[in-house]
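Internal tracking record. Fields below are filled automatically when a chain is submitted to the structure queue. Please do not edit lines marked as system-generated. If the sequence contains nonstandard residues, flag them in the REMARKS field before resubmitting.
Queue: standard
Priority: normal
Entity type: single polypeptide chain
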Amino acid sequence: MKILVADDDADLREAFVEYLRDLGHEVDDAKDGFDALAAGRAKRYDIVLSDINMPRCDGWTVARMIKKQWPETRIFLCTGWAHVIDSDWAKIEEVERIFLKPFDLEELVEVLEGRAEPHAMGESG
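SYSTEM-GENERATED OUTPUT FOLLOWS
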């Protein structure tokens, strides 16, 4: 799959990218929302995994703009604050799931690859 990972935490972003590439996916990364939007305009991704709280442009905006251009792209957001976000808002934004940081990378990959159903926000397993 073609995956875009957007997160302003360089260590976390690099860990996601390395892990997903090791599984054979084509992965690009963006250091913030503006970079994610530029990447999304230039290339169609199967999946976008974005942090919500990033400088210059947040994950909600990334999700909305990429879905507008590429409606078939699956959008997943991650945050340390998922438990305070209204799940109805995630549905409106066409986000499949919000992962609460820290999360299990194996669970993330199972959801991204369609081997596990996206659960409600903040749920696991």
